[in-house]
Specification:
By secondary structure, the chain is mostly loops. It is built from 1 helix and 3 strands. It is globular. The termini are far apart.
């Protein structure tokens, strides 16, 4: 899904919409990663941990454009090469995460904790990093053209 020309990276005001959802079956738990705008399930995996589900999605080459990952605990996650264009990672904990070569064009990372994250060669063009904590983040070769870095540390 591409953003409409009149759309912005502003976060929609939908406090009752879960960012990711655990669906319980008889003896299983499935975590669903949904699209931030239309709620479409982009990926599901039998686990109760968003970090495990997202790492599995990346390893399988899942297309996670617009994924709703607000507030996700992704400390130390292996997300090398992840396709997360336009994903909502507002307030996500990405401390020490491996995001080498990740495609995060237009991603919403407002207030995200990226301390010590490896963003070498990541595409962050047009990403919203307002208020993000980038202390110790490795940004060699990262493309930050047009990124909003207001208040980022």
């Amino acid at each position: 899904m591409r953003f409409r020309s009149d759309a912005t990276n502003e976060h929609p005001k939908e406090p009752n919409r879960p960012s990711h959802q655990i669906v319980r079956g008889d003896d299983t738990m499935k975590l669903e990663i949904k699209h931030r705008w239309n709620g479409e399930v982009l990926f599901s995996f039998e686990t109760d941990k968003i970090k495990i589900a997202l790492e599995a999605a990346v390893k399988m080459g899942a297309y996670l454009e617009g994924a709703d990952l607000r507030g996700a605990d992704l400390k130390g996650a292996d997300l090398e090469g992840a396709y997360l264009e336009g994903a909502d990672l507002e307030g996500a904990d990405l401390r020490g995460a491996d995001l080498k070569g990740a495609y995060l064009k237009g991603a919403y990372l407002k207030g995200a904790d990226l301390r010590g994250a490896d963003l070498k060669g990541a595409d962050l063009r047009g990403a919203d990093l307002e208020g993000a904590d980038l202390e110790g983040a490795y940004l060699e070769g990262a493309d930050l053209e047009g990124a909003d870095l207001r208040g980022a540390d």
